[in-house]
Design brief:
Length: 397
C-alpha cells in the first residue's frame, strides 16, 4: 500500500514536470534560442503579402501582420539564421524593420530609416552590423547600423550605384566597389583600404584574409597585396555558341558570379557578345576553382527525350548547399539538383506545374521553391523536396 502511494506521488511529480513541455508542443511554442530561419518567403496577394519563416522542423510561422496595403523589399537574413531585416513600404511610409525570431519582445517593434529609399540590406557574419545602401537619388549613402545600440553612421557615399556588399564569412569585414575600385573596411575602425583593381564581383575568401577576384583568371589577393592565381585562363574554357557574333565572354549583368560558401566553386552567368553588339547571349557555367575545371550547365542538365533544359532564356536563379556539395537551379519549369562530387543530376518537375526560385534550407536538408499551375498565376504556393530528391510537397500555411 505504501509503495502504491509513493508511486502515485512520483507519477504526480513527473506529470507536473513534463506537463509544460506537452503544452508547449501543443501550442507550437519552442524554447527560446532554439529556433532558426530555415527558409523565409512571402505569400498573399500583391500589396497584402505577409512574411513567413520555416523553422528546422518545417513548422511555418507568419512573421508579419500588416492590415493596410504594403510591400516588402530587400529581405535579408543573418548568417546565424536567427535575425532578419527588410524594408516595409506602406501607404506614404517606408522604414527598415529588424526582427530577432527568438526575442520578439525586445526586437519586434524596432523600426529605423523612416522615409528612406533602400537599395540593399546586408548583415555582417557575426550579426553585429547591418550595412544599408540607401537614397532617393545619387549620391547614395552606405550606412552602418550597430545592432547593439542601433546607432546609425554614414560610412561613405556612391556617386553611381555600386551594389553587392560582401561581408567576410567570419566577423565583420565589409567589401564593396566604389568608383570602379575594390574597397574594404571594418565598421568599428571606419578605416578604408583600396585595391587598385577594377572588378564588379569580388568576394572575401573563406577566412576573411583576402579577396577572390574573377576576370580572365581567378586569383586571390591577400590583405598585404600578394597575388596568387587560383585558376589561370578560366575564360578560355568557355566556348561561345556557333551563332555568336562576338568572340568574347563577359560577366553577366543579371547574375554575375555566385560563389559557394567554401569559395572553391562558383557559377558564372555570361553575356556572350562584345559591348558594341546589341543582341545578348546568356550562358551559365559551373566552375570548380579547386579542381580547375569548367562546364556549361546546358551540357549537364538534360532529360532523355527532351530538349536541353537549361535554355538561355529559361534561367532564373541558383543556389549552393550550405556544405558546398550540391547546386540547384531552375529552368524550363522545373528544378535541377546537381551533386557536385558524383556529377549526378535530378530534375524535379510536375506536368501541370511551373517551379522556380529554388533555395536550399539553412540546414541543407531541403530545397524550397515557388510554384503554380500552368496558366494560373493566382495558384502560387511554396513547395519543397528533400535535397536528394523525392516527393514534391507543399508547405502548409
Amino acid at each position: 500500500m505504501l509503495c502504491l502511494y509513493n508511486m502515485r506521488r512520483i507519477i504526480f511529480v513527473l506529470l507536473l514536470f513534463f506537463c509544460p513541455v506537452v503544452l508547449s508542443a501543443q501550442t507550437g511554442e519552442k524554447e527560446s534560442g532554439k529556433s532558426i530561419i530555415n527558409y523565409v518567403f512571402t505569400a498573399g496577394r500583391h500589396g497584402h503579402q505577409q512574411i513567413y519563416i520555416v523553422d528546422e522542423h518545417l513548422i511555418v510561422q507568419r512573421l508579419t501582420d500588416y492590415k493596410d496595403e504594403h510591400n516588402f523589399f530587400r529581405i535579408s537574413v543573418s548568417l546565424d539564421k536567427k535575425k532578419l531585416a527588410f524594408q516595409v513600404v506602406m501607404l506614404n511610409q517606408r522604414f527598415l524593420k529588424i526582427i530577432d525570431i527568438n526575442s520578439f519582445s525586445e526586437m519586434k517593434h524596432i523600426e529605423l530609416l523612416h522615409n528612406v529609399v533602400i537599395h540593399e540590406v546586408s548583415w555582417s557574419a557575426d550579426a553585429k552590423y547591418i550595412a544599408v545602401v540607401c537614397g532617393s537619388k545619387l549620391p547614395y549613402q552606405l550606412l552602418i547600423i550597430d545592432t547593439s545600440s542601433y546607432k546609425i553612421s554614414t560610412l561613405t557615399h556612391f556617386d553611381k550605384y555600386s551594389p553587392r556588399l560582401t561581408w567576410s564569412i567570419q566577423g565583420h569585414k565589409l567589401l564593396f566597389v566604389k568608383d570602379g575600385m575594390v574597397m574594404f573596411t571594418e565598421p568599428s575602425s571606419a578605416l578604408f583600404r583600396q585595391l587598385n583593381i577594377d572588378n564588379r564581383f569580388p568576394v572575401w575568401d573563406e577566412n576573411g584574409d583576402g579577396i577572390i577576384v574573377f576576370s580572365k583568371d581567378i586569383y586571390h589577393i591577400s590583405l598585404d597585396g600578394t597575388i596568387t592565381i587560383l585558376y589561370a585562363n578560366v575564360m578560355d574554357q568557355m566556348t561561345p555558341p556557333s551563332d555568336c557574333r562576338g568572340p568574347f565572354l563577359y560577366p553577366g549583368i543579371y547574375l554575375g558570379v555566385k560563389y559557394s560558401l567554401d569559395r572553391k566553386k562558383c557559377i558564372l552567368c555570361t553575356d556572350i557578345s562584345p559591348p558594341e553588339v546589341s543582341s545578348v547571349y546568356l550562358r551559365i557555367f559551373f566552375i570548380n576553382i579547386e579542381k580547375k575545371y569548367t562546364m556549361s550547365l546546358s551540357d549537364v542538365f538534360k532529360v532523355e527525350g527532351s530538349k536541353n533544359l537549361f535554355g538561355t532564356t529559361a534561367y532564373r536563379s541558383c543556389d549552393f548547399s550550405p556544405d558546398s556539395m550540391k547546386f540547384v537551379c531552375d529552368s524550363n519549369g522545373g528544378i535541377n539538383i546537381l551533386d557536385i562530387e558524383s556529377g549526378n543530376t535530378l530534375f524535379i518537375a510536375e506536368e501541370d506545374y511551373i517551379f522556380w526560385m529554388p533555395q536550399f534550407s539553412a540546414d541543407g536538408r531541403f530545397v524550397f521553391f515557388k510554384g503554380n499551375k500552368k496558366g494560373k498565376p493566382d495558384t502560387e504556393f511554396t513547395y519543397y523536396v528533400t535535397a536528394g530528391g523525392g516527393e514534391i510537397k507543399r508547405l502548409d500555411y
